[in-house]
Amino acid sequence: MRPFIVKTEKMDVTVLGTRFTVTAYGNRPFSTCLAEGSVNITGRGIPETVLKPGEMLSEEGDKWKLSCVRSSNFTAWAGNQMVFDELPLTDIIESLEHWYNVKFATDGKFEPG
């Protein structure tokens, strides 16, 4: 298999036979999450990084963070599913807004029904 490169404004992800996701929307932090295989990430201000399955490299302000995650939360969309296991409600709302091109109005208050 020949590798291919996903190029974004801030990072290049070299795909080496794998399942992964790249988030590169204008208003959200850039990130790459790996489910299986491997990817090599390079870019401006990013140390060259080879991800292992279950790892995610994400932008946090002007820094980059490598973390262990449940990759299904980030890759399930490829199978026409959405998985929100152990994610904050704010992240779930952002994902739903992007996926369905809608905006949810929340006031931050919760009143039990």
Model description:
- The chain has 113 residues and is mainly β.
- The chain has two helices and eight strands.
- It has helices at residues 72-75, 89-100; strands at 4-7, 12-15, 19-23, 31-36, 39-43, 46-51, 55-60, 63-68.
- The strands form two sheets. The chain has a four-stranded antiparallel β-sheet with strand order 1-2-5-6, with no helix packed on it.
- A hairpin with a 2-residue loop joins β5 (39-43) and β6 (46-51).
Describe the structure in brief:
This protein has 113 residues and is mainly beta. Helices cover 14% and strands 37% of the residues. It has helices at residues 72-75, 89-100, and strands at residues 4-7, 12-15, 19-23, 31-36, 39-43, 46-51, 55-60, 63-68.
